[in-house]
Amino acid sequence: xxxxxxxxxxxxxxxxxxxxxxxxxxxxxxxxxxxxxxxxxxxxxxxxxxxxxxxxxxxxxxxxxxxxxxxxxxxxxxxxxxxxxxxxxxxxxxxxxxxxxxxxxxxxxxxxxxxxxxxxxxxxxxxxxxxxxxxxxxxxxxxxxxxxxxxxxxxxxxxxxxxxxxxxxxxxxxxxxxxxxxxxxxxxxxxxxxxxxxxxxxxxxxxxxxxxxxxxxxxxxxxxxxxxxxxxxx
Length: 234
Hints:
Strand content: under 5%
Helix content: over 70%
Radius of gyration: 24 Å
Low-confidence stretches: 5-17, 21-35
Mean pLDDT: 88
Number of helices: 11
Distance between the termini: 75 Å
Shape: globular
């Protein structure tokens, strides 16, 4: 039998081994998680090194699940989703540029367009004006927010603009948080986009909203899906 000292030594040795083993497992899991994050944002990191203005695209690994969900929506759902999500981008923009009204006007007129209250030329000009703000302010981060808002408004025209919202808004996030610290915030924002799209998928056609005639037509195929299929053939 082991004496008390031997027992205590054995227990301590076993505890130390357990701790070292547990630490190794945790380190391995953290490494796997970190490798996954690096893979998810690998194209973004490349674009950052190249000093690209747009840091996300339809090929971004981090956006693939969101794109799959976008492709199965009707046009009305994407309009509601884009205009809804763009409100946060607008709020952030107006905190710094409270006197610049063009992005807000863009969202307001594009919603009127979706409801059939105005015709396309008025809304189209408002969209172009929102994009033009990016050049006026000469501010990469907030300019990206203007482009995000412009694409959100243009989603009323065609579904393929919907993805412009996350592409530009997430680019603004990277510019805000820096190349080493954007991953958590961007991941949370992508989850937000996804969950809001699920919400509007459920709610849009139950709200009894007025729609322009071209948005009431469910016979046309989702243009984002068509574009995806064309890209696969290249």
